[in-house]
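I have been asked to look over a protein record a colleague put together. Alongside the sequence sits a line of tokens, each denoting a local backbone shape. Please read both lines and tell me whether the tokens look consistent with the sequence. Take the sequence as given and treat only the tokens as open to question. I have pasted the whole thing underneath without changing anything:
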Amino acid sequence: MAGDDDIDQDALAAEWGVSLDDEEGASGDDAMADKWAAMIDEEEPEAVASAGTERVLNQEEIDSLLGFNVEGMNRDVRNGIRAIINSTIVSYERLPMLEIVFDRLVRLLTTSLRNFTSDNVEVALEGLSSVRFGDYLNSIPLPAILAVFKAEEWDNYGLVTVGSNLIYSMVDVLLGGGRGSMRLRIEGRPYTTIEMNLIRRMIEVVLGDADLAFAPLSPVHFNVERLETNPRFAAIARPANAAILVKLRIDMEDRGGNIEILLPYATIEPIRELLLQMFMGEKFGRDPIWEGHLASELWSATVELDAVLFEQEMPLRKVMDFKVGDTLALDRRTSDPIILRCGETVLTEGKAGRVGDKVAVRITSRLRRPKMTYAAFEKADRMAVEGT
């Protein structure tokens, strides 16, 4: 019995030991599983947060950042990085007189080209813009004729570009070609001497009208220096320099083309102050009607004059002590001149006298011209504005 009890006790102890080992293993696995679950829960918010901070830009946002707009490519509208790159370009709108000058050029050119071609010619101003000189040379569609001209009074150069359509149309008109005939155009061949001479005459007509357009503002004469067909040989400024580009459209019924005038800012710098002026209406410069009206009104205006016999400064205390009967001694003689003054401005001098029962003054010296001229007033006002 004792042996059986020992066997039973040993078997029971072994069974309890196995069950304890199983429980410890199970509890260890559960602890490890809980630990892994906690680590996963901690990593998932970080992954979500990192995914929220990383954002990929789409194509529209990239174009907006770089300043590109495929739908409306306009030279005058820039934003993003393009606006920073082109921030040094001076807009022609700061020179309001340029539009008036080139509007006048369009009117003059319409009449001149009609007389030059004996045909119905219409000239239109397509636009004014500011460009870089290098970008403009690279954008010229070839073949074309480029005329380099010099502004004699401004001592600088400009450029006139005539497109191929206008070249063949003008040659066709001047040589008597039919209006409905097909123009034979051979691409790649150089322009003949006849074509170059005819286009040179047309460019001289355009520059002659440009002389008249600028004449009320500043006398200038444009002379054609040379004609080029390669834009690289027509470099009159550095590629990065800013320039004014004027586009003109010339139509002769069913034919025509474009002509462009390029003026670097260095060329128009001598008349920059004149181009900054603003005039109302189409007239600019002197207006004889207004000058005549102003002169007539000035001649009929009334002016008060003061005849000053003597001036003396004395303290206010002494003036307040004046009494009836006091005598003021004037340090003057009857032969001393009397000063005639308008306000604070001294005009002239004279001598006192009498005409009938009235006291009169005879003028003895010429009228004194004011030292401050109107131009000096304008300069003083401009300096005051710049100082503020």
